[in-house]
Amino acid sequence: MSDLKKIKPSLSKGTRDFLPSEVAKRNYIFDTIKEVFRKYGFEQIETPAIERLETLTGKYGEEGDKLLFKILNSGDYLKEVRSQQSAISDADIKEITKIISEKGLRYDLTVPLARYVVQHQEELAFPFRRFHIGPVWRADRPQKGRYQEFYQCDADIIGSTSLLNEVELTQIYAEVFARLGMKVSIRLNNRKLIDELINAIEGNSKKKEIITVIDKLDKIEWDGEKGIAKELSNLGLNAQQVQDLKGFLFMADFKLLFPKSVGNHELTYVMNNLDSTTGVLVDPKLMRGLDYYTGTIWEVKSNDTQIGSLGGGGRYDNLTEMFGGQNMSGVGISFGIERIYDVMEELNLFPETIAQGAKVLFVPREEAMEDFAF
User: What phi, psi does 213 have (nearest 5°)?
Assistant: First the structure.
């Protein structure tokens, strides 16, 4: 053993160990969420942590694709690359990646769900109501509340276009956070309304880029040398377009924002059926940058501490079609366990006693008592 090189124990950045007491608290959150999911009729599934890269890429936008953890193929994965003599361009790197890496760690639980539904559609009853709890991985810069490995808890409904699903999922958010003792704001918007907004300022040619910039509003001020307005100008929007966009985004009453649009109608329906649900509001500034959302979108923020989103989700109409299946609309929400845990710990919201470990301890005082203790 003395000849072995000693290694300093350390973790990969953006990951964490949990002590038994911490695991017990995390299980308290998981169990609370599971109980509410089951109350609303959702069934649990499992999918692999590893998916084919072709399953994952192109679903999360250009920035999301950059954050995918890719897994090198086993064996001599550079065999076909070594023959290249010329300088390697960005395009070459993409082609090389296809050669040396065919798999990646899942980025979220929604895209694997769409693949799962298409593969198993003959065995499922629709509308299919599933929940899934498991780790996901993103090669993001670690910071408070943001990790490279973290757990998501998702509930999705596949095969139904009814807006009652949006109402129900909003109620699930409200009920879970109420049970956990957390005060939150549940923000809603609609991608159809966002499309109307961008069309109104004639910004369709830069739609994805505009959404990406506006999605930073929680972190960056509107004005200033590095503000949102400046970034929009850098995209090619003129001063009038930027001003009009600001007017739309900061409108006090969303019902005045394109009142005849489908997106406005859908949001109004959801809000009208949530009269008894507090902490829910429509926010035209909410974007949710993922490419696959097509209707209602959600984001949940803590009212009591400065941290990123505690959950998010949306409706997606085209994901199953991407995998060659018949087009089935889906809608779902996700809870970010790591941030929920951090907020509850910071605000001391966990119960004083959480069931953990053995409750009875035998202490044999002499050898003859050991058999009795066993």
Answer: -70, -50
Please give the single-letter amino acid code of residue 324. G
Sign of CA dihedral 19, 25, 28, 34: negative
Question: Rounded to a whole number, what is the largest CA-CA distance in the chain?
Answer: 90
Residue 151 has pLDDT above 60, yes or no: yes
Mean pLDDT of the 13-42 span: 95
pLDDT of residue 322 exceeding 80, the answer is no
CB atoms within 10 A of CB 152: 20
pTM strictly above 0.70? yes
pLDDT of residue 80: 61
Q: What confidence score (pLDDT) does residue 77 get?
A: 62
Q: CA-to-CA distance for 47 and 51, rounded, in angstroms?
A: 9
Q: How many CA atoms lie within 13 A of 296 on its CB side?
A: 28
Strand residue runs (E) in the chain: 43-44, 50-52, 70-71, 103-105, 128-137, 149-158, 184-190, 280-282, 296-302, 311-316, 330-336
Angle at 136 between CA 143 and CA 78, to 5 degrees: 95
Share of the chain above pLDDT 90, in %: 52
Structure tokens at 186: 């549940």
Segment 188-197 mean pLDDT: 92
Selection from 153, 115, 156 nearest residue 134 by Cα: 153
Q: What pLDDT is attached to residue 105?
A: 95
Cβ atoms of residues 311 and 333 within 8 Å: yes
Distance, CA of 330 to chain centre:
15
What gap in Å lies between CA 311 and CA 343, rounded to an integer?
A: 13
DSSP per-residue string spanning 302-351: ESSS--S-SEEEEEESSHHHHTTSPP--EEEEEEEHHHHHHHHHHTT-S-
Could you tell me if 356 and 21 are in contact, meaning their C-beta atoms sit under 8 angstroms apart? yes
Q: What mean pLDDT value characterizes the chain?
A: 88
CA neighbor of 56 nearest in space, from 152, 148, 137, 150: 137
Question: Left, alpha or beta for 363 (phi > 0: left; psi -120 to 50: alpha)?
Answer: beta
